[in-house]
Design a protein that fits this description.
By secondary structure, the chain is an alpha/beta fold. The protein has 2 domains: 2-117 and 292-322, Medium-chain alcohol dehydrogenases, catalytic domain (Quinone Oxidoreductase, Chain A, domain 1), CATH 3.90.180; 121-259, Quinone Oxidoreductase, Chain A, domain 1 (Alpha-Beta Complex), CATH 3.90.180.10. The chain has 12 helices and 16 strands. It has helices spanning 41-44, 111-115, 118-130, 148-159, 171-176, 194-200, 218-223, 247-252, 267-272, 274-280, 282-286, 303-311; strands at residues 2-8, 13-19, 29-38, 56-58, 62-70, 82-86, 94-98, 103-104, 139-143, 163-168, 184-187, 206-211, 225-233, 256-259, 294-299, 318-322. Helix 12 links the parallel strand 15 (294-299) and strand 16. Helix 3 packs across helix 4 (148-159) and helix 3 (118-130) packs across helix 10 (274-280). The two termini are 13 Å apart.
Length: 328
């Protein structure tokens, strides 16, 4: 089968399409004939923590396809079933999923839409619900709201009855996100949004911050936080890995700061979050209240072009790789 590998150099990641053997599922694993897989920016940023310089790994992190073979002990799935999940090596014709993280694809979703859900929306569930404890009527700030995780955070927050402020360097993208329920769009890439946030919230501030940008806006995010607010750090596309913390604000306002990453979690810990996602967010997806925003779909052979499109920062939502054909 064809599969992409990624080698991380000192400054950039290099992709290679190789011919390798179809893997065999082990206990509690599922072999999936991949139909689509979506890109995640963090995978390609050297130094982000997902890719270390000098290492080679199978590329891709989430996708969707048909169950082709079951490993020992898998009783909740069947061959031929449409499935989606977090999936190391998803940019391939076949890939292995942990059966505990393999989710049935709702009938209303295309392969491309399904491939944009597992990692992205489970990260969002972790931020907004599992750790973020988001309640209806609360204010949410999403920095970099036009990214894949940013758009998904907006959609999930609105589905839970929250009000959302988003930042982006593109006014056009902010205008387009009004259709997804964005309440206030702030056109900026800098940490200069405190005054606008306080005006929009009538001085209340933000109850839950989703920081997809990084250290360059971290201090401003803390500054915007209301009493007993929470801040999730999910990425640092700005490459700024440190930020100033206002200890007095942290103390007086009883703030909660937390990170969202799967890097150091065990397979058991990752799997433990799936039932919560299935209960809290998947029903809204299956009912059509949340529909993944797909910016562009690239053919399997054009992963390099898809990566370049992502790095050009012109996309809104997810970029997807189509793999194979329905009748293949």
């Amino acid at each position: 089968m064809k599969s992409y590998s990624m080698q991380s150099g000192a400054d950039a990641a290099t992709l290679e399409l190789r011919e390798i053997a179809i893997p065999e599922p082990g206990p509690q694993q599922v072999l999936v004939k991949m139909r689509a897989a979506s890109l995640n920016r963090g995978e390609f940023i050297v130094g982000h923590g997902l890719a270390k310089a000098g290492t080679v790994k199978a590329a891709g992190m989430e996708g969707a396809g048909e169950v082709a073979k079951l490993g020992a002990g898998v009783g909740n799935l069947k061959v031929g079933q449409r499935a989606m999940g977090r999936c190391p090596g998803a940019f391939a014709e076949y890939a292995l999923m942990d059966a505990r993280e393999t989710i049935a694809v709702p009938d209303n979703l295309s392969w491309e839409e399904a491939s944009a859900i597992p990692l992205t929306f489970m990260v969002v569930h972790d931020m907004l619900i599992a750790q973020g404890r988001l309640r209806p009527g609360e204010w949410v700030l999403v920095t970099g709201v036009s990214s894949g995780v940013g758009v998904a955070s907006l959609q999930a927050a609105k589905a839970r009855g929250a009000k959302v402020i988003g930042t982006s360097g593109s006014q056009e993208k902010l205008d387009r996100l009004k259709a997804e329920g964005l309440d206030v769009g702030l056109c900026t890439r800098k940490g200069d949004f405190f005054d606008a946030v306080m005006k929009a919230t009538d001085g209340h501030g933000i109850d839950l911050v989703v920081n997809t940008v990084g250290g360059s806006v971290f201090a401003e995010c803390v500054r915007c936080m209301a009493f007993e607010a929470r801040l999730a750090t999910v990425g640092y596309v700005d490459g700024v890995l440190k930020g100033e913390i206002d200890i007095q604000a942290l103390h007086a306002r009883r703030l909660t700061l937390f990170g969202v990453s799967n890097k150091m979690r065990s397979p058991e810990q990752r799997a433990a979050g799936v039932p919560g996602f299935v209960a809290d967010i998947l029903p809204a997806i299956a009912a059509g209240r949340i529909r993944p925003v797909i910016d562009r779909v690239f053919p399997f052979e054009q992963l390099e072009a898809a990566k370049a499109h992502m790095e050009a920062n012109r996309h809104l939502g997810k970029i997807v790789l189509a793999i194979g054909k329905e009748d293949a």
